[in-house]
Amino acid sequence: AQSVTQPDIHITVSEGASLELRCNYSYGATPYLFWYVQSPGQGLQLLLKYFSGDTLVQGIKGFEAEFKRSQSSFNLRKPSVHWSDAAEYFCAVGATGSARQLTFGSGTQLTVLP
Amino acid sequence: EAGVAQSPRYKIIEKRQSVAFWCNPISGHATLYWYQQILGQGPKLLIQFQNNGVVDDSQLPKDRFSAERLKGVDSTLKIQPAKLEDSAVYLCASSHRSTSTDTQYFGPGTRLTVL
């Protein structure tokens, strides 16, 4: 069974600073990987996803993530954080083949200081 | 394009009472999911429908939870009777198909508080 670990429960950055959110997964084959963002009172919104090919994936709102098979990681990055990026971020893994469900990490809460 | 709709947005009940949540997926989406998100955790899949058939309900506590998707469009999730540990946000999501590569679109959720 697949699993996802987001080691940072809470991260605080200043507006304009760079951001990296960590995600480690466990899965026996090549996984499908996702990053979602959840603002207060909102549902989850997909930021980006990786299925195959180029290991550096570009997403919406200026986010990108890099798949590193050797480290079982899929870290999310943004070069310059905006105050509106404050939210909770979830990494998820989807199994290949016939399985369809997503397994989510426990999330990282991002606070942005002015 | 309208997103996934859920109602109610908030519900407060006492333990042992019953509650029902409603979800209307994005038009044309064949697959519908119900997730439970407990405070401080990521969403956990409860049940997945493909059209009006159940694909996966392995994590649904069937002694108290039930769900249906009549006519393959909207869906209801019911809890009867509720326990304190059912306090959570219940998220509905839909996707065009049921493959792992298909994007799941989430509704705003229903926040349930069981007293």
The string of secondary-structure elements of chain A, in order, is EEEEEEEEEEEE
Helicity level of chain B, as a percent range?
under 10%
Largest sheet of chain A: 6 strands, mixed
What is the radius of gyration of chain B?
Answer: 13 Å
What do the pLDDT scores of chain A average to? 91
List low-pLDDT spans of chain B: none
Number of strands of chain B: 11
Helical/strand content category of chain A: mainly beta
Report the helical percentage of chain A: under 10%
Cα(first) to Cα(last) distance of chain B is 37 Å
Distance between the termini of chain A: 41 Å
Query: What structural category characterises the helix and strand content of chain B?
Result: mainly beta
Order of helices and strands of chain B: EEEEEEEEEEE
What is the β-strand count of chain A? 12
* Average pLDDT of chain B: 92
Bin the strand percentage of chain B: over 45%
Overall description:
The complex is a heterodimer of chains A (114) and B (115). Chain A has 114 residues and is mostly beta strands. Chain A is 0% helix and 52% strand. Chain A contains no helices and twelve strands. In chain A, the strands form three sheets. In chain A, strands 2, 5, 6, 10, 11 and 12 form a six-stranded mixed β-sheet that branches. The model of chain A has no long low-confidence stretch (mean pLDDT 91). In chain B, a hairpin with a 6-residue loop joins strand 4 (31-37) and strand 5 (44-50). Chain B is built from no helices and eleven strands. Chain B is globular, with a radius of gyration of 13 Å. The interface between A and B is medium-sized, with 25 and 26 residues.
